[in-house]
Predict the 3D structure of the following.
Amino acid sequence: MEHAKIVELKKTSANIKLGALEAVYSASSGHPGGSLSIADILAYLYFVEMRIDPKNPDWEDRDRFVLSKGHASPGLYGVLAERGYFPKEDLKTFRQIDSYLQGHPDMKGVPGVDMTTGSLGLGFSASCGMALSSKISGKDFRVYAILGDGELEEGQVWEAAMFAAHYKLDKLCVFVDFNGLQIDGPVTDIINPTPIDAKFEAFNWNVISIDGHDFNQIEAAVNAAKACTDKPTAIICSTIKGKGVSYMENAVKWHGSAPNKEQYEQAVAEINAYVASL
Amino acid sequence: MAIGDKIATREAYGDALVEFGAKYDIVVFDADLAEATKTIKFKNAYPDRFFDCGIAEGNMVAVAAGMATTGRIPFASSFAMFTAGRAFEQIRNAIGYPHLNVKIGATHAGITVGEDGATHQCNEDIATMRSIPGMTIINPADATEARAAVEAAILHNGPVYLRFGRLAIPTLFDKESYKMEIGKGIKLTEGKDVTIVATGLMVSVALEAGKLLANEGISAAVINIHTIKPLDTELIIASARETGAVVTAEEHNIIGGMGAAVCEALSENFPVPVKRVGINDEFGRSGKVPPLLELYGLTPANVAANAKAAIAMK
């Protein structure tokens, strides 16, 4: 990828993070850590890869995106606002009584949300249904999903993994946000889901392991997924929870808590300083 | 299916999927029970539109939800226990909340599963499905109604829970003249002393109970409630007004089922004495079906006895 393109994507990712943080700060609740860890993946998908039309969010031949780790809704809303699905000002209404931006993604209320998620594991299964529909209809749209690493503890994830491999859902590409932390602590301390790559390989998936903050690696992995025509692809992304905000990085606390005013201002300053340094 | 022929509603479900599969672009999922749910018939007719999900019901219903988002009409089939029971949360969150156009074809509802016993006898599915906003619940009384219910479900835009049974039961309605309207109950007999509100296989039992009561000079109206949600409260209230007493009859726990729904509607609108016939908040057990029906009181005699008890409370 050209250097200029990478810089542009880094700026886009920073804007997604700013949007996510504004949403969580305004709501005084929400999940910032796992939103920041996926911002780079979201930037790549929504600004490079996916065939989508923000003016026609229900376009039936569009590529689909399912945020199976639905609690990272601030990240999803951040990228949708950045891509023009709805006004950025609306991010301030996140989780408010009169807002369409529900705590977890609601496909009926938010333009650009392709599946209602929040209960872990369900989005992954739903993405399999979409990919199967694409396959049997000859529509050729692709389906992307992001799963959390803690989410892998849900049994349904492995039901879906078996299903996707059995039906050779080659249009399905799943990112695992392997940031290593879940609400109660490090995933390896709670119920260890590792080795994640070997598990998906054993389930007969095409597996690629990357640094989830490296746009060249993200691009190469997505292209490799598209080149694989007989298996679904799992891209295991090593990421940093809270990426881009120093005090949030790798800190369990920021899985599901909101910054106060001072913390929010510091987070915004850090991200703006990062953008200025690019 | 001539009137009087004994056919299980699950058979009619399988046949209807094949029949309407020719007319509508439906997709059918099952969870390793296609032989039992009778979706095998659809599999044989349209192998390209049938997908076995293996023994993974939670995944199946959420896969169906994802498929529905792309505009297709999926049916997801398994036993009532493993859809409305095991996969309740997936149905609630992946289908109910986004109001997706998924049809859940649940067979082997109630105790007439028979020998498999309590783990497979689902007497709680109406209760769980009723509690999901926007869910339509249809519990057909015979093969004719089951066939019609499948087409009605296809034409209805939104989630539908279709409840079918394993037991061969008498065909009550004529296939050519029967018309199903979701949410509209059917008054089968007029009466002035008591109203029997029945659903599923208890409709034919209720009709027999009506005859027993007639022999004793008691005039019973019998209402067939094929759609439990939305409930035809208008018809039920009107009949309660005419008869002043009601007995409900269902192959389901009396808690949370059709009888409970009737009680809710009547107590808020036109309170009259009501007796509920159903499973009395207990688990089923293994056995042949006729003695099971006797043991749990799903008989014309017990419905008639409860009708008299309701009348006595007037």
About this structure: Chain B has 13 helices and 14 strands. Residues 183 and 227 of chain B are 5 Å apart (CA to CA). Chain B has two domains: 6-170, 186-312. The first helix of chain B runs from residue 9 to 21.
